[in-house]
Amino acid sequence: MRLGYPAAAIRAAEAPLLDAGRGPVLMRTAAAGLAAVCRRDLIEARGCVTGARVVVLAGAGNNGGDALFAGADLSRRGARVTVVDVLGRLHPEGAAALRAAGGDIEPLGAESAPLTARAELVIDGILGTGASGSLRAPLDTFIADWQAAASGTGSARRQRVIAVDVPTGVDATTGAVGAVHVRADRTVTFGGHKAGLLLPGGADAAGELALVDIGLDLAPFRPTVEAPEPADLAVGWPFPQPDMHKYTRGVLGLVAGSHRYPGAGLLTTAAAVSTGLGMLRLLAPDEVTAAVLDRCPEVVTEPGRVQAWAVGPGAPDTLLMRRAIIEAENRSLPLVIDAGGLGLLTRPLETTCIVTPHAGELVDLLGRLTTGVPTRAEVEADPVTHAVRAAQAFEGVIALKGRRTIVARPDGSVVAPPPGPAALATAGSGDVLTGILGALLATTAEHRVAERSGPYDQADWSGPATDIAILAGLAVTVHGLAGHRTTHASGLPAAVEDIVLGLKAGSAGAGTGQNDGRRGE
Ligand SMILES: NC(=O)C1=CN([C@@H]2O[C@H](COP(=O)(O)OP(=O)(O)OC[C@H]3O[C@@H](n4cnc5c(N)ncnc54)[C@H](O)[C@@H]3O)[C@@H](O)[C@H]2O)[C@@H](O)CC1
Ligand SMILES: [K+]
After folding, report:
1. 173 and 57 in one domain?
2. Above 0.90 for ipTM, yes or no?
């Protein structure tokens, strides 16, 4: 689990060390970690550091200082290092170290963008946590010109970009990106993950993350983002225990599917059953249950006792959904509400609940719960703010589905699972997620699913998750992993790809067959 902190928290954690005169040591430690990542990447890409063309983009502050000391390290090891002094002022000790190691320093000029575009490795040390406001000229035009020149080179071996602490143009706290911002392959961040590196916008700009320990004590500070990783499934997943039977393992009540949308009932059921649970009770019209039983004969279609509810996929019967919601409230059962169930939400519920709208559905939900409703485009442009607003209005957890799904708690903290492949943007994908999440709620040990009032700290993260927001994060993580497993490198889902490849093979085969035929005549 990666924990993301606001830039102010990281800076506050640095303050006592800076007051104690340890600033230079912190910078040397940060720069050494950064240089090690750069060397590893260069060796992987080209076999050695010697002779590599490296451009260091250095700003005026400590972010530039980190980059300059790392550039000095690479220069000492034989790389050809050129620094572009982007803001007209450099960290003095960093600049001295770079020169002493044999590197060059150039002012920002007309040649800077093409020079940067030709580099094998670009180190972005322009702005870090000290950035304020949008990028000022000429910084914005320089970055845009470099990116245009780099994409125009047509070079087969694309350059690598490593951002120092946070890519320039990304808000370290919110992840908001300006129209112009650095897009990195990797970001080497110091002391703790900045929240913005884990959130939509920033996460895409940052690329892969590497964390360098510089000895900060973050225990007094609250993370605002928890970002599950696939490895967290091994800890947080409610695995079945040997002494369980079907009722203690967990029974999910599911209201899904209708005459108009029978497939949603089948997809949600199949996903829940594949996730694993003690039993699934499906309440749906006969034609839906008949189709489901054909595929999943273990499903029970009689009402009875359950430990969690999932309602809404496939426009189910309103009365059935209302009954499920009332029972969940009366018996304090955890509940997931999706799609057709969202229209019933006009007030906060009296039980642990997660609601899973996409952007358009969130707009409708906000319309019923608040005044001042955003447009769908506004939600898509700033999903975190709007998901948190909805969680506060609903007084419960909201999973706003999108390429990067955001799970928001009313206290403003969010869970940000990794994105799945683009192939998951398909009808029925949300039904599958509801099935996975329903099964997780039902099977969470002793039905202790609750809603935390805030994020975990690392010490809490040692056993199966019981917080509904984390369970949702794990469900999205598994959903994405399943998507990746069934997606070919082309980005097409496996089944479609197989058809396309089959067609190609078929037409090639037909050609060969004709030739063979002629030869045979
Ligand atoms: N403080 C510490 O203890 C440590 C800091 N470290 C590094 O220091 C960074 C923070 O350093 P600083 O506080 O010096 O800040 P930065 O280096 O992020 O930036 C400050 C400089 O950028 C300029 N600037 C800010 N916003 C701008 C904008 N929109 N357009 C153009 N110029 C802008 C400011 O005028 C100032 O000169 C961290 O991100 C990290 O990389 C590391 O060396 C580790 C230790
Ligand atoms: K940077």
Report:
1. yes
2. yes
